[in-house]
Amino acid sequence: MHQKTIAAPDPAAPSLTDLANGFHSDKGTIHPEPHSYTLVYDMLLQPRRAAVRDMLEIGLCAGGPEVGNDAGRQPPDAPSVRMWLQYFPHAMVQGFDISDFSFFQHPRFRFTRGDAGRAADLQAAVAGTDGYDLIIDDGSHASFHQQLAFLHLFPHLRPGGLYIIEDLHWQSPYYEGQLPPTMRTAELIEHWFRTGRFPRLAAAELQGMEALAAGIDFAFTLNQPFVQASPPKLAVIQKRW
């Protein structure tokens, strides 16, 4: 059986939590509204740190249309992009957002502007790529958007790659009622965990989700670290080797 060789990480490199806190990302532990996801990410990603060559993040900064602001806003920064560029020293980091982040320039950063509710925009994001080692969905958090993105992007995840969906607990009041109805994403992942299958979803745009279930090695949801009675907030999905 072929096993992928993963380069050893640099023991002197800063942790992802240190980087998140330094760049004021809410994925860290000291943001005014911290999610502390980096405590989990470091355990999952540290062994892959030197091996990740391509990653994609959906949603580059809080405060977009998901909370009622205009998509044409001027984003203040891209803190998580800065964090990923330093954490993965060899990776090309691709960003996807409904707001314009083209102001952020770096030799290892590529930006695609688009709407996660449009299949054509999601396909444009992956055009010309040969796959990703890591995909993180930190976009609108609307279940339909999360599931449409997964439907179109998971096939572009490389074998053994990780697909992570953040903030399962929160549904945008500005999006949820406008979008085709679907089950909550946390429930969708739990269904796979219990049955090894995805249910047939009602929205026509989500047809074909069932076929992706066989390509999943494992999937689980996690609560927020150190928060008692936290609902599921994070989904981690690994593609089969």
Describe the structure concisely.
The chain has about 240 residues and is of the alpha/beta class. It has six helices and seven strands.
Write the topology of this structure:
Elements lengths: L15 H7 L14 H9 L8 E5 L20 H9 L4 E6 L11 E5 L5 H8 L5 E6 L5 H11 L3 E10 L18 H11 L20 E7 L11 E6 L2
Parallel strand pairs: 1-2, 1-4, 2-3, 4-5
Antiparallel strand pairs: 5-7, 6-7
Tell me what the structure shows.
- The longest helix has 11 residues, at 143-153.
- Strands 3-2-1-4-5-7-6 form a seven-stranded mixed sheet, sandwiched between helices.
- Mean pLDDT is 93; it is low at 1-5.
- The chain starts with 15 loop residues before the first helix and ends with a strand.
- The chain is α/β, with parallel strands linked by helices and 241 residues long.
- It has helices spanning 16-22, 37-45, 79-87, 119-126, 143-153, 185-195, and strands at 54-58, 92-97, 109-113, 132-137, 157-166, 216-222, 234-239.
- Helix 1 (16-22) packs antiparallel against helix 3 and helix 4 packs across helix 5 (143-153).
- The chain has a single domain (25-232), classed as Vaccinia Virus protein VP39 (Rossmann fold, 3-Layer(aba) Sandwich), CATH 3.40.50.
Low-confidence stretches: 1-5
Question: What is the CATH topology classification name?
Answer: Rossmann fold
Could you spell the SSE succession in H and E letters?
Answer: HHEHEEHEHEHEE
> What's the β-strand tally?
7
